[in-house]
């Protein structure tokens, strides 16, 4: 285990702790069950996408943890070392963006599409620059993970996560258009889906 793997492990545990802390705080302080992935009365397409996100992100987390420990991490690619360090930086930026997004969402933060409780449309802070900064943070963490551990399994899991999270964004945007109407449409016209030009 080298220093890059130690930093990777710290990033991983920072992600896991912040993620679950947000869930616990919402549950205890506000009585909000924020994890609604694949739960509730939703269209079949939404349930399928949310289930795919749940499975693929779980696989990503397990692989990130194992690769950080040096288990299953085969570095046969000659450029792996400098690319791995760039991956640490990208994953660190992604984690920072993700945590900022959770903080700005306050009690409106959910994992999955929540049709059962009322939330507000957050457009301030980091949400002025991206309609989906939490997903953007995830995407940067997926890309950073693939760069830190450039092996076939990491590539497959990373690409699947990028695809499934994008499909979830499409589902969520439909929900937000339906829920907030023209207010969301104006916000979507003025704010990119990911960052700056996308």
UniProtKB/TrEMBL annotation:
<feature type="transmembrane region" description="Helical">
    <location>
        <begin position="6"/>
        <end position="26"/>
    </location>
</feature>
<keyword id="KW-0472">Membrane</keyword>
<dbReference type="Pfam" id="PF04191">
    <property type="entry name" value="PEMT"/>
</dbReference>
<protein>
    <recommendedName>
        <fullName>Isoprenylcysteine carboxyl methyltransferase</fullName>
    </recommendedName>
</protein>
<feature type="transmembrane region" description="Helical">
    <location>
        <begin position="85"/>
        <end position="105"/>
    </location>
</feature>
<feature type="transmembrane region" description="Helical">
    <location>
        <begin position="152"/>
        <end position="170"/>
    </location>
</feature>
<keyword id="KW-1133">Transmembrane helix</keyword>
<dbReference type="InterPro" id="IPR007318">
    <property type="entry name" value="Phopholipid_MeTrfase"/>
</dbReference>
<keyword id="KW-0812">Transmembrane</keyword>
